[in-house]
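tool=predict chain=A
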Amino acid sequence: MKTIEELTPEQMKLFDEVSNKYLNIAFGGNQEVNLEAAKDGFNLLYSRAGYPPPKDIVVLESPKELKKESGLVDGETFNPVGIFYDAPWTSLADFFQQISASISSEIEFDVWKNFICFSGVAFCVLREQVAYVCRRPKKTHFSSEGKLHSEKETVISWEDGFGEYALNGVVVSKEVALTPGEKMPLSMLREANVDVRREIVRKMGIERIAYLGKQEVLDTLEDYQLILLDIGDGRKREYLKMKNPSIGVTHIEGVLPGLKTAVEALNWRNQQNTLPEILT
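tool=predict ok
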């Protein structure tokens, strides 16, 4: 069997096309469910697990309805089966199949690929007698980096009105997502989840946090100050506070922990031992 050492430019182009095809299937807004394709896929899954095919396939409008109708209790999660979970590896296998890589017939990949591409199943809850499936969302919002993100509305929503909020791929509350950074109170920094707190800090801006919060000045050098700042998690971190005299703007950047003087902070920031003539 020939080993693929490197992809050609044409193959790289095809790789992007296949990846985008699966992304569009998942998030393109098509909410239709093809029961025949779903049935074939579930028959394959159940048989591999040693069970007879499910007697019924119940299509539900959103994750909220799926959780309710399938009887999920606290601690249980959706089964990671469907376009939401399986698009990455299925699209990769699809790509290699298209460039003539060999895939074992025992896997029945064509049946599986048909299930992922055409069933419309986003994810599901599989019971012994019934397969509960969730439709794909009607609307999604992504950042330029390809992460679920919106500061104006839900990042993903279904036909029945259910939706989720997220910032840079991090699921957050409606309050965190929609409150403008300049209106966020300092109390929001008490958020326990480190990823959510990071997004709050990003929205508020470290300058505003420093203005509202308590800062301890460790050292001063002209328009530079080395300060200690608590961003809400009880830890004090070193920041370099800099004033640009030409435009009168104050800027704050995190620096290496343990620094004691503004000169040390400037040297670390600029990776040199001479002071800058102007703030950059």
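The mean pLDDT is 90. The chain has nine helices and eleven strands.
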